[in-house]
Amino acid sequence: MNEVILQLISLQALDLELDAIDQQIKVHQDGLTQRREASVERQAGIEKLEAQIEELEKEHRTLDLEMTEEQGHVKNRQSKMMQVQTGREQTALLKEIEDAKANVKEKEEKIVGIMAEVESLTSQITEEKNLLKGEEEGLAEEEGTVKKAVAAIKRSRKSQAAARDKESEALVGNLLRKYTVLRERRNGLAVVNVLGGVCQGCFMSIPPQKYNMLLSGEQFFDCPACQRIIYHQSVEEQE
Ligand SMILES: [Zn+2]
């Protein structure tokens, strides 16, 4: 095999390993971010429930005041009953008292409903807070684990990167530049094998005469379709 193509192949292998390492780090960090976001969301949910309770308690206080007023009205009308003379006046007062009592009852029922709702919201909050506490403890633990894992990955990445840089020194400047640009534009793959006349980067067929030129393993050139650097190495040679 051509010396330069072998260098390119081994450089790319190291670069792909580095890509995989970076991906590993990203997966760890994305996992943490997701969990943090879930925690923030749960916290916001709790605050919303608390605001709901506050609103209900305000309504409760208003109803209490209205009820006291209504009860006062009932008493006032009842004492007035002693003073009325005619049956018509009496009927009117009785009707007023009846209505006021009905109002009191209605408000009482509303208050009972509100109290039940507050109770259910309160237990919901307790449950959410417990979940949040568990999540936050788990998260703190996970943060420590991820930090250690990432540090270990980064250490091995460092020696890997040093090996990679040493490998790249062997390549002449313009070939390295071409390789770097191709890696950026072609999803990390700059150098690809051609098997059975098909580019393993873009899976297009290479013209037969070009493929014949590659077969010796001594030549390399650009894929006419994807511009990646192509070479030929039989499957047996790769093993
Ligand atoms: Zn191609």
UniProtKB/TrEMBL annotation:
The keyword Coiled coil applies. Residues 39-124 form a coiled coil. InterPro entries: Oxidative_Scav/Glycosyltrans, Zf-RING_7. Residues 198-230 form the C4-type zinc ribbon domain. Pfam families: Zn_ribbon_9 (PF02591). Keywords: Coiled coil. The keyword Hydrolase does not apply. It comes from the Bacteria. This is C4-type zinc ribbon domain-containing protein. It comes from Candidatus Desulfatifera sulfidica.
